[in-house]
């Protein structure tokens, strides 16, 4: 029996050391240690071993099992290491990694961020309102009469239920004043929609930034100072700002704001950039009606409002010749803004 166990051990170690892959190793394990393996079968012979030899044979049996188990484990580790090495063989782990292309902000996102940063520093808080608006918030409350051309179906997208896609962000002025009492100092960036023929300077969906400041004693000088400061922060301290009398239903007096930039490289030219004015008292009265109080009494408070096109701001900032470039998502265009 002892001799037989020696034979099993040396056969097992020889078999294990000649194994080439993990499947063959498993086969060897089953062949020696499995239920019907050679060592198990030999172990069953313990029954017939005379009593006085049992101890010695038992010890031998354990030794052989340990030797085979150890050899199996060592061989298994060796095969796994060889498999890993093979997997790495075609790879050079010391090579530098491929560079990850850094993303960039869309020019509109960048311009919006800059504009908001400057205005927040001046104490304006962000406000928002829905893009699908009621006629009341978009027109009536803003003192815009039924027969105003902007209300025409050929200029504005209407839904069958009478709602519309807001034609400007000025509706957020109304929505804000409905909710809070003065002083109010907000900016509302967002999309606006008009039924314009699409060309290099018109899109049917565009971006505006609205501003509103209502308090006791707000004057035209505050409006002028605020916008001059704003545009000089954005376009440089040499930027000239001009206020040209204009008409908007919801402000009185009203102005269009033009800029003359120092560094455009082209002949100096005034560029129209924003609309603004002092909030028309009729707007305050509509808001009071909706609120059911006199929080915005025109005898108590005054205010200014302004609205500007962010797409236009981006065009000027980057010298973009065609608005459509901003929405085509052509990487060759967008890649330039990193
Ligand atoms: N809502 C106007 C427009 O879209 C701009 C504006 C805003 C004018 C606020 C005056 C005051 O053209």
Short description:
Helices cover 42% and strands 19% of the residues.
Looking at the overall shape, the CATH architecture of the largest domain is 2-Layer Sandwich
Low-confidence stretches: none
Total number of strands = 9
Which CATH class of the largest domain?
Alpha Beta
CA-to-CA gap between the ends?
A: 82 Å
Order of helices and strands: HHHHHEEHEHEEHEEEHEHHH
Shape: elongated
Give the % helix. 40-55%
Rg: 41 Å
CATH evolutionary superfamily of the largest domain: Bira Bifunctional Protein, Domain 2
Largest sheet: 7 strands, mixed
Mean pLDDT: 93
Bound molecules: phenylalanine
Task: Please describe what this structure looks like.
- The protein is of the alpha+beta class.
- The chain has 2 domains: 2-88; 107-337, BirA Bifunctional Protein, domain 2 (2-Layer Sandwich).
- Helices cover 42% and strands 19% of the residues.
- The protein is built from 12 helices and 9 strands.
- The strands form 2 sheets. It has a 7-stranded mixed β-sheet, sandwiched between helices.
- A hairpin with a 2-residue loop joins strand 6 and strand 7 (251-260).
- Helix 1 (2-18) packs antiparallel against helix 2 (22-33) and helix 1 runs parallel beside helix 4.
- The longest helix is centred in the first third of the chain and has 35 residues, at 54-88.
- The model has no long low-confidence stretch (mean pLDDT 93).
- The chain binds phenylalanine (PHE).
- Phenylalanine binds next to strand 8 and strand 9.
């Amino acid at each position: 029996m002892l001799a037989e166990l020696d034979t099993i051990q040396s056969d097992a170690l020889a078999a294990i050391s000649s194994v080439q892959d993990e499947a063959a190793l498993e086969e060897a394990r089953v062949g020696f240690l499995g239920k019907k393996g050679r060592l198990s079968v030999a172990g069953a012979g313990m029954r017939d071993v005379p009593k006085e030899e049992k101890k010695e044979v038992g010890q031998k049996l354990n030794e052989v099992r340990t030797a085979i188990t150890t050899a199996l484990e060592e061989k298994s580790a060796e095969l796994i290491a060889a498999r890993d090495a093979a997997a790495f063989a075609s790879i050079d782990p010391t090579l530098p990694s491929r560079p990850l292309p850094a993303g960039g902000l869309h020019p509109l996102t960048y311009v919006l961020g800059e504009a908001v940063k400057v205005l927040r520093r001046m104490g304006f808080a962000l406000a928002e309102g829905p893009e699908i608006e009621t006629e009341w918030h978009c027109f009536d409350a803003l003192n815009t009469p039924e027969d105003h051309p902007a209300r025409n179906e050929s200029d504005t997208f209407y839904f069958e239920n009478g709602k519309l896609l807001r034609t400007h962000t000025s509706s957020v002025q109304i929505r804000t004043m409905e909710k809070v009492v003065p002083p109010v100092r907000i900016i509302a960036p967002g999309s606006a929609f008009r039924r314009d023929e699409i060309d290099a300077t018109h899109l049917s969906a565009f971006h505006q930034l609205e501003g509103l400041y209502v308090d006791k004693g707000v004057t035209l000088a505050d409006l002028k100072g605020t916008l001059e400061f704003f545009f000089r922060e954005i376009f440089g301290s040499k930027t000239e700002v001009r206020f040209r009398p204009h008409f908007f239903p919801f402000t009185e007096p009203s102005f269009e704001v033009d800029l003359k930039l120092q560094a455009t490289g082209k002949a100096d030219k005034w560029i129209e950039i924003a609309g603004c004015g002092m909030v028309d008292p009729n707007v305050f009265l509509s808001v009071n009606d909706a609120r059911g109080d006199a929080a915005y009494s025109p005898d108590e408070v005054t205010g200014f409002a302004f609205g500007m096109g962010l797409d236009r701001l981006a065009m000027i900032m980057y010298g973009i010749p065609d608005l459509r470039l901003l929405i085509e998502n052509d990487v060759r265009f967008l890649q330039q803004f990193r």
